[in-house]
Every structure is written in C-alpha cells, then in structure tokens.
Amino acid sequence: MAMSKGFRVHFKNDLQSPFSILLERRGREETVLFESGAIALLSPQETDAVRRQYAPLTSAYCCLGVLELRLDDATTISYLTLVTGCVSAGRVGDSEFFRVTATAFVSLRNRGDDEERIDDVRRHLDSGSFYFSWSAASGEPARDLGLRAQRVAAATETDERFFWNCALHAPLARYGVAAGDWLARLMCGGVEVRTIYVGHRRAKACVISRLSCERAGTRFNVRGADDDGHVANFVETEQAVFVDDAVASYVQTRGSVPLFWEQPGVQVGSHRIRMSRGHEMHAPAFDRHLSDTRDLYGDQVIVNLLGSKEGERVLSQAFQSHHRASQHWGAIPHVAYDYHAMIKGGNKDNLKVLRGKLQKQLDSFGFFHEQGDDVRQQQSGVIRTNCLDCLDRTNNVQTYLAMLVLPRQLAALGLATPSIVSRCEDVFRAMWAENGNHVSRIYAGTGALDGKTKLKDGARSVTRTIQNNFLDSGKQEAIDILLVGVATRGAARDRARALLPARLLPRAPPALLRDACARHLEFTRHVPVRITIGTWNVNGGGTARNIAFRHHSLADWLLDNHLRQQSASLVDVAAATAEDWSKPVDIFAVGFEEIVDLNASNIMSASTENQKSWRDEIQRTICRDRRYVVVASEQLVGVCLFVFARPEHAPHVRDVAATTAKTGLGGATGNKGAVAIRLQFHATSMAFVCAHLAAGQSQVADRNRDYAEIARAIAFPPARTLAGHDYVFWCGDFNYRIDMPIDDVKDCVRRGDFAALTAADQLTTQRDAGNAFAGYREGALSFAPTYKYDLFSDDYDTSDKQRAPAWTDRVLWRRRVHPGEDAAFDADRLLHYGRAELKTSDHRPVVAMIEVEVQRVDAARRERALRDAVRALGPPDATVVVSLDDEDAAEEDAASALDDEFVDGVVERLGAVGDLVLVRFVGATMWATFGEERQALRASELGSITVGGRRAAVSLKTPDWEERVDRELKIGVNAGGGGVEDATVDRETNETRFAYEMGGRDDDDVSVGSSGRETPETLATEKPRRPPPPRRPPPPQRPVAPPVAAPRARARAGVVNIRTPPRPPGSDAAVTVRSPFSPAAGKVAHLPPPLLPLAGMSKPSSTTDLQSWPPEGAVGGTRPGIPRNWSWDAVLDTGQPDEGGCAPGSPGTPPELSFDLGDPGTPPPHPDDFAELGDPGTPPLLSGDFSELGDPGTPPPLPDDFAHLGDPGTPPPLPGDFTQLGDPGTPPPLPENFAEFGDPGTPPLSPPELPGNERFFFPIDSDKSGQRVIATRPPPPIPTRRAPPPPPR
Known about the structure:
Number of strands: 44
Domain SAC: 121-445
Organism: Priapulus caudatus
Region (Disordered): 994-1073, 1092-1289
EC number: 3.1.3.36
Enzyme class: hydrolase
Helix content: 10-25%
Distance between the termini: 64 Å
Largest sheet: 13 strands, mixed
Strand content: 15-25%
C-alpha cells in the first residue's frame, strides 16, 4: 500500500464560540480536538455529534505535533504542525522513509500574524534535511529512524538525541493522548537507500546519518562543547545491508572537538580560533563527553584530522593535551592525522597510513550482524572522527573506513563474490558522497567540498562564507524554537535551567517550571563564596614586565590590601578573627583600563599581547598561596577583564560567556565602552562588567548615557541580559568627579574628611537620584581619591590642567531578590574596600572583597520538591468527570440523566471553582476541562455536588496522573494513553467521516519502478486553505401555520463550548453602517468581535486606509463586508457624527436596531425587531418580526411578512409587503440594496435586510486623532418602476 494523505484537519470559526481544530486520521475512529488551549481525544459518538460544525481546512501526510512558541512567561502560541509535502527516500521491509519537503502550521488561536512568527521554522523544516518513517503494514509500527540496527534488536526506547520533535509530542501526552498513535518522529540528517540485486535475492543498501539535537546549530554559531559534554555537529552514521531477514550494520561517529572554542568575527578564508575558557576549565566537559560516548557505543578511538596551520594547530594541541591529562588516555587511543598535509594534490593513497594505525580497532570493534532473531555479532566500539567543521575531510575518511568494513559485512550475509563486492562498493561510494552533502547542507548551508573540481569547490566556499557569516542567525533561532519553544531565554527560563534538570525544559509546562523554581529554598542551601574585584587604569603603561613595576608587587593590590590598608577597610580588621581572613578567595575578577594607548591604530585593531602579559602576571601573583585557573578573559581596545577561580570549582562553573559594548563616538568605536563576563556558579548566575566611561568634569550626562547604553547593549548568548543575573558586579574607571573646587578637595583629603567629599561625589548623587547605577551598593569611600596623580609620586596633578582629585575608579554590585526570599536577608556583605599604592599610573588601583551567598542544589531534595510541585499543580489534562450517583442513575435512562437543568447547574457550580473551557458528554458522564491544572484539582476535592436535588460525584479523569507525570519527568517521554478509549462508550458506529473518503488519490501515491528501486516522486504540496465564507441558504417554504418553539435539547455525546472568544486589542473601536431606509424601531446592534482568518487580515490604521478596507474576499466569520459604493467618514468617540451625519435620536434620524446580534439568549425588546442573526433554531418571537436571516427552514410568521432575505428573485406576496415596517408610505427600494453582510461580492438582494439606521460594531484601529471611523452608504436612487402585481391568494 502506497502512502497517501491520511490526515485531515477541520476548523470551526464560529463567531459565538472559540476557534477550534479537529484532527482526523485514516483508520482511526477517534479524532483529536484542539480548542481553548485544551486537547481532547473524542470518541466516535462525540465526533458524530460535532462534525457538522466543522469544515475541511487541509490534509497532510503526517502530523508532527503541537509547537508551543513562548513569547514571554505569560504568552504562548500553539501551532498544529503538519507535513504537507514529502518525497520517498527508500524502503526497508515494510517501513518506508520519507524526506519532508513542505510543512504547514495552523495557529490554534487563529491570528493572522501568527504565521509570520514561525517563517524561519517552516523554512528549516522544508529544507530537505528532516525524515520520518511510515509503515505499509497495517497496525505495525514503522522502523524508528533514530535507532541503529543494533539498538533496534535490543528493543530499546527511542534515542532522544535524534528525536527532533520530542517537544512537539509533549502537549498531546500532557492531555493523555497517545502521541505515538497520532504523531510521527522526526529525524534530522541524511537517508540514502538503494536496491541491489544479487542473483534471485534483493538487498537493500543504506547509509543513514543522524544529527544529534543536543547541541544543534549552524557553523559559526555553535562550536565545540557545552557544559554537559554535548558537541556541535555530532553525527552517527550507519552503513547497513539488509537481505531477506538478515542485516549487517557498521556505525561511525563524528563530532566537534570537545573543548570550549569559537571562531569570532567575520571568517573569510581563515581559521582564526579562540579558546573561550582557560585551559583547566575544559576538563569537566571533555570528561563528560568521552564518558557518555563510551557508555553509548563502547570502546572508542579518536581520529583527529586537524592541520598544523593557523588556529587548527592551537586547537589540535589543546585536544591532545586534554586527552593526555584525562582519565581516558589509556582506554581511548588518539590518532593525529594531518589530512591536508598527507593528502596533498588529492592523493588518497596516503590514507593507507591511517589504515595501519587503525587496523587493530577495525578488527576488534567488528560490526553488528543479525540473522532473523539471532544476533550473530555485536559492534563493540566506534571510530570517532573530527576535523574543524567535521564535514569534508571527515566524510572522506569515514568513506574510506566504511569501504574497508563493507566486504566483511557482505561476507557475513553470504554475498562475498568479487563481482557483488565491486558493485556494492560503487553503490556505497555514491551514497557516502550524497551523505556528505546532506550533513554539510545542515551545518554549513552548502554541499560538501569533494576536492575534485576547483571551480565547484570555490563556488561552494564563497556561498558558505556568505551564508555562515550573515544569514545563519535566522536558522539558529528556528532550531532553538523547534527544540525548546523559544528563540531567546528570559530571566525566568535561565533561572529554571540553573535549578532544574535539563531534560525538563523542552517538555515541562511553564506553570510547572515556575512552581518548581518558586520552591528553590526547599532543595538548595546557601554557601558563602568570597569574590575579590579589582580595577586599575594603567594609563597605557605597557605590560606587567615593564621595568617600572620592578619595585611594585601586584600582591599589595590583590592579596594583601586588606592587611596593609586597615584604615581604609570597611571592616575593622584588627577586631576580626584570624579565621575570617584565612578563608581563601574563591573568584577573582580583575579589570584594566587603557592597557594599550588609545590611538587610532589601537582603536581600529588593538593588540592582544598586553592582555596575555597581564593575564600571566596576575595568575602568577594570585597563585602565591593557592592555585587559581583562568575562567575567561575579554578585551575591547584598552578595556580588559579577567576572571579566575579555584580549580576545585571548575566542575561547578557553567555557561561562561563574554561580550563587549562600545560607547565611543556614539557607539562606533571602542576607546570607551565595557567588557563583560558571565558565569553560573552552582545555581547562582553572576555577571562582571569592567567599564571605561566618558571623561570630563562636567560630562555627567554623557557618563549616565554610557552607563545606560552598556546596561542595555550587553547581552550574552542566547540573549541573556544583565538584569537577569543573580549578582552583577561593576568595576572600572567611571570618570565621575567631585563637584568642589580643587583646593577644597585637596584640603578635605589632607584632613581626611571623606564624608564631605562623598556628599559632592557625582556618582553618589547620580545613583541616589536614580540616573545611573540605581539599586547598586558600594562600600564607604574611606580612602583618598584615586585620580589624578603625577607618575611615581604621591602628589595630585601638578600639570597645567590642574585636574581636581576624584574617585574615578570604583566597584559596585547588586543582588537580585527571588520570590520567596527575604529582601532584608544579608546574602552579601562587604569585607574590604580600599586602594593600593601602585604609582606607575596616574590612577591608583582599587580592590573590593565581597562575600556572597551562592545556592547549591541538593539533587535528592530537588526530586522531592519536583514531585510536590507536580502534585500541587494538578493533572496535566485539567479534566474532571461528573457522574450521577448509582441510585440516581438507576432510576432514569443514562442518555436522559443529564438534562439541561442539571448540566447548567453543574457548569455553574464548577465555574465557581475555575475557568471552564470545554465540556464533553461521554455516555452518562460529563467531562469538564478547566483552563488551569490547579482548578481541576480543586474541583475534584469537592468530591460530590448536589444540583436540583440530585447528587453527582466529581473525580479526576486521570486518577493516576501523578505516576504518569513522574514517569515523564524521569525518562522524558510520556507514553500517553488513558484517553477516551478507556471510557465505556459505544464503538459499533463506523461510518465514513465528514462525507469523504480518507483514501489517497492516484497522484498521491509513491511509485515503485520496475527495477525494484524506489523512484522518489514528489508528493503534492498543499497549503491550508482560508476558511470559506458561509453559503447562502435557499429560500424557505411558507408554512400553513407559524411554527411553535421547541424545547432546547442537548446532545448526549458531544462538545459544549464554554469560553467565549477573547476580545482582541482595540475592540472598543467600531465601524458603523448607516442605511437610508426608514426603520420601524431604532436601536443599536453590536456584532461580537470576529476572529481573524488563517491567512491574516490587516486592519485600517487611519481614515485614509479605510477607502480600501476591508479587502476583497472578506468572508463571513472574519469581518462584515462593506459594499464598494459606500463612503467612509469619521465619528467622535462620544457617538456624535461629523457634519453630514445625524446623531441618534435627532429629528429625521432613523432609529436603530435594539439588541446585540449574535447573542442567542437576549430577547428583542421591541415586537418589530428581527430575529437574531446566526441562530437558526430560534423561532420568531412576535408576529411582526422578520424571518430569521440564514435559517432556510424557519418560515415568516405572517403571510404579509417580507420574503426571505437573501433571495432576490422572490416576488412580494402583497403590494404592501415591500414597505418598511412602521413606515407605510415608503416606496419599495430597488435591488441595489446593500449586499449580504460579510459577502461584498454577493448580488443585490430583495427588500432591505435590516430596517433603519443599522449599526454593526466590530474592532478596528482608531486613527491618530482618537476618532472612530464610520462607513456610510449613499442614499439609493429614486425608483422609476412600479411594484409588481400581487400574486393570487
């Protein structure tokens, strides 16, 4: 059986109920309902009860799940993700593999601009790099593309490393829907399948590459490893041969060098590489990576293809150095093979050298061989190959190694003849070449460079350069949205990532993350950590090896300052115990300004030699008593920042990042600006900023602007801001001065009157005023001003400029208070704040020692807190079941037990508990879904309720929800189930759904060539259609007698909408439609605010835009259409019209309609009102009413009533019938009457649809003057023909 479009999507866009989507799959009687943020599995009976309310929207080959795009902590947009185009990549057994070529996203809230938000995600999914599998055998699961043959034989769970739409499965599993029955698993990589005939047997040759999603990204955005040991571009490639029921499989891996490295700036034909952390800080991630790969694949051997030029040599040496120092050195061989040097001129014969080095591992690792259910051989290890990008060189070497193993695979399958081996080698070489192109397109944007054609390789290199440097940011955001649901991480998400296991972030609901983080005090403890922060403007003083520093030690500044400057310390050191100062400093953050001269040459391209010199000197100094390692360093022209930590803290330091912000010349140059480094220590985030602000005595406003720009511009990937950190430390030359005459300043310094100077300090006054550094703390300024000195002197500036002394060099910090914490809690205290007497610059260095409280997570207590958070949150499906007690249910038929009065009473009682969004009827039970999980939990605590003298039990729909959620938190995948299929419902009905067959068309099939090899045939791509306008009903038949209103009946198996659609922003604006006809009653009719169509519709923003609005094709259910011959003018918000209009109630103004259209429960206040639009089941209320619009089955109550509206060809029954009610003297209008509402293209109708001055309000934007807009129809022409004669009675 060939694959066809087996999924159908239907929509309901009724103005009176929320937007709703119904998903149907061929072969299944149930359907999945998406409405009001809830997901429900409908039984066949429920589907039959509601299917007439839905219209077809689109069809698809498979469904990928629900993409949840989190705009912020409170707003989430959900998209039903569908595959609408695919191409067959080949078949193995009953499983066929398809490459995705087109996808569709249906917004579950039906906003027109929602589709634009995920355009990059759609392009990424449509790029041809994603695959899913489908089983041709009915009822049999398809082969999991994410599992290699050896793991398939072990019957293990799916490998989440290659499960790219795992987060899209989570919403269905959360509501108890078995995601495996409805959704496909998506794998990113490459699939190549060929059919090889060997005599009378047919073999399948496969090369399948699986890209890991654990550290996914593009070439220059994602490099190296992360703190969990995941590496960029990690690919598992399997070479497999299937013959009958036997398989032989060989696996290799590739991945980026597992260190912290990057390629900053624009890379054009160069390999500039920067190690982003200190040497020792790589060890924890390096060890995690090799440990994880050994657990997954067994023994390892590393093949390092990096060269000896430019940055590759530095990276290769670091790789080998860390490997030798790790615990894996003896167990994992490291083979260094300079590919470019060995394969000069394309001479691949030198690969035999590599073969000699790997022959032992090739023999010992073997391959996987299975015959039927008998596993004959296991692969015990893999060869891990890497180059810089893990693309071209890696693919060539992996192809060579695979060809060495292929004859052994064929021999194990009984296909060892030379001719067969030769044919198979040719086929596999071609497939490996295509495999290299697949992997290269994903990571670099182009096919692989094969070295055969210089022109083609050159063109691809240029394309890569442009793509990777300038166009990959959108692709990276799309990958983040697909995997995590967000493109950027806010402060709340960073907090969750610091406190909670990483496995929770993609699939846990935001409410659970917030609740778990709010419980952080239950599973964390505070640990004191000492941080020393220093800053010094060295005035371009060169390197630390300068002869000027011969008699000065940096230890006086960074290590012994609190001992040498007791008088300048905030803490009385003499009174402090020796134990207090014996505690070592945990983190050093040292900032410099003007480490190079601020000349034009250095501003354009500053040297890093001074940075390295100062780093080495500082590390040598602070390691006097105990060892410290470099965490990170960053330089911006003359501003430089270093962060050091004790080596035992390295495993607990994560997410290190550095960035810069320029403020010189309006942000164009870096002579002024800041550098920043952030890190996470245990569960506490810290950011260190070293800044050099604008100089000048009177430039206070410029300094304030520099501070504000730095605070705004600094953003660490991915989009972390300074405000989102637990601690933020600022140091540097801020250049704030003292607003006092120079002589007064010097006099206060001589007298030690620092309090008077502090009162005039610009930074202190600006901070108190909230203009800069608002909320930051600083120690007391109990030391002399640090600027400006004569070099090698204790004298302040004696030059002609005579600059006044000032505290330009400062250290400030801020702590963020989390929910549940006491704001008065002393989580940080200043131990020392002073200056050092190093005289080689015109500034004196400043140092501060601060003790902060860092949160450390207890994993066992965290698991208990997570379970408590889950129990407090409630069941994920937020659904309770209401059922009558057994005694009451036995007295009456189950189908009639839930009458209207009882149901309304239950809805009222449950509505008092929470926000009901969905009510369903299953058998003799009523299922109620709430907007929040906690509300369902509170409702279940009622136990029972009494309505109308009858008692009903209230229980949770999923009693074992705690165990299910607990399983999901542990293994990351909820098996689902527990839906309607577990309830007692009638399953005998098996009629065709929605009046069309689910079978595919002939052109939907994937054909198989006569040669036996699959011929991929592009399947039809279909976009979701815009919801169609409502059809015009046929004219009614006149009854003998007026109809009698029947009592309202509620379906026993069906869905009841509870939540009304929310009013979008701007819904207080209105469009008013005026009619020239004389009315019988004058009131105002308000239409409910409509939902926007799928394709979106822009709203007018001014009166000028209204001339072309609404656009052609506006349909019912979106916005009422306005005929083209109407004019627009403006009406004030008070309701009074401009000139040319008439105010309601003024002489000559026709009265308006009375009741709100679209409100079935509101009776008309006047007898001559017309029946409500859109309520076909409501009979006319009074004899003078109009027949209901859009209800072909409801006859007019009197013979002299109007002909049915919408039937222009119906002659009037009496001569007076065309007259307006209440206005006998008005001649009948002509057929140029206004068109049916919502259908501008409809031909003119018969007598006026609405008598009087009709006003239809629906939301639009007001213009800049604050006025509302109004649409006015011009008066009709005077009739020139006589009324038709009356028909015979």
